Amino acid sequence: MVVAGATGVVGRTLLPLLRERGHHVTALVRRVDRLDCPTSVDDVAVADLLDPDGVRRELRRVAPDVVVDQTSGIGRTDLTDGQRRAARSRERASKNLVAASVAAGATRIIGQSTTAAYRPHGHDVLDEESPLWTDAPGCWGEAVRAQVAMEEAVLTCSDIEGVALRYGTLYGPGTQYAPGGAIHSRVCGSELPVVSDEVGLTSFTHVEDAAGAVLELLAGGEPGAYNVVDNEPAEATEWLPAYARMAGGPAPVSLTLEQARTQLDWLTVHQLTEQRGATNFRLRETLGWRPKWPSWREGFADLFGHWPG
Ligand SMILES: NC(=O)c1ccc[n+]([C@@H]2O[C@H](COP(=O)([O-])OP(=O)(O)OC[C@H]3O[C@@H](n4cnc5c(N)ncnc54)[C@H](OP(=O)(O)O)[C@@H]3O)[C@@H](O)[C@H]2O)c1
């Protein structure tokens, strides 16, 4: 099989798991020197996904049965102009990868998506049938539309089985929640408050569970979209103070919605006050998948060395 995005936060976690299970793994990378450990794979293919000829040539050479795309989607709190452009270019990258996978004779492609793209509504957690927020304001709308186009490239090609794994907010080693990451710095610098009068929900996904879901979907499971999240969608007023405590940071300050709107960027306010969680029911019921980290509570504790084992 081929893993694109092998140097990313989920790709790095996935490679050893695939090898442990006896898969023949080719890492598709832009630069070989970005691979942590070239011996963790059987083969390396070098191509930029934005170069259709290069991807096609490398995939034909490798002739994989399955192609896993772990190049990153949206789901971040800090989208810069460059990252928004990168999100848009993913549509092209995905189309190139799907076309090259079909030409190489692959039977399944598994892409990375996110539950952050759901339109917030009601107080419930959202399932895979919930609408994606394609008309969200400003740059978030752009990012969601790019994400939808990426999913469509993977899910609507009739010549290959397409799976979109919609991850929740990723945490664990190497993510923004790890010591030194962007969220860690914001929490420890008292830059991420709780908002007292409106409470958003976050569904978290440990990177090990993100990688574990790929293993489940390699051969089994109907094509389509699957939420890959833990069992406990968390209110911002709960997970943020708990995270700050475990990280050894100050307790978050509390703002009113009006104060938050004047002091924080739109996306952060959205996440803290109106974002909805997601349910992993489909993955649990159809494939018997169980997250290794069923709750962010244990996962955060493990991240900061407070979890036995
Ligand atoms: N759902 C979520 O919350 C979510 C999802 C994803 C990421 N994140 C966050 O984003 C941060 C970075 O994550 P990440 O390491 O996965 O993302 P990343 O740094 O953007 O890496 C994504 C992977 O895609 C590869 N890639 C990007 N464009 C490519 C192209 N045109 N052709 C071939 N390969 C390409 C990168 O290769 P190179 O090594 O060559 O750059 C890298 O392997 C983390 O803190 C993570 O928590 C969050």
Task: Provide an overview of this structure.
The chain is an alpha/beta fold. It has one domain: NAD(P)-binding Rossmann-like Domain (Rossmann fold). The chain has eleven helices and 13 strands. The strands form four sheets. A seven-stranded parallel β-sheet has the order 3-2-1-4-5-6-11, sandwiched between helices. Helix 7 runs parallel beside helix 11 (296-303). The mean pLDDT is 92. NADP nicotinamide-adenine-dinucleotide phosphate binds next to helix 1 and strand 7. It comes from Saccharopolyspora hirsuta. This is NAD(P)-dependent oxidoreductase.
Q: End-to-end span in angstroms? A: 32 Å
Name the average pLDDT.
Answer: 92
The distinct bound ligands, ions and cofactors come out as: NADP nicotinamide-adenine-dinucleotide phosphate
Largest sheet: 7 strands, parallel
Question: How are the secondary structure elements laid out?
Answer:
Blueprint: E1 2-4, H1 9-20, E2 26-29, E3 43-46, H2 52-62, E4 66-69, H3 81-103, E5 108-114, H4 138-155, E6 161-167, E7 169-171, H5 182-188, E8 194-195, E9 201-202, E10 204-206, H6 207-217, E11 224-228, E12 234-235, H7 236-247, E13 254-255, H8 257-263, H9 266-273, H10 281-287, H11 296-303
Parallel strand pairs: 1-2, 1-4, 2-3, 4-5, 5-6, 6-11, 7-10, 8-13
Antiparallel strand pairs: 9-12
Helix pairs in contact: 1-6, 2-3, 3-4, 7-11
Bound molecules: NADP nicotinamide-adenine-dinucleotide phosphate (NAP).
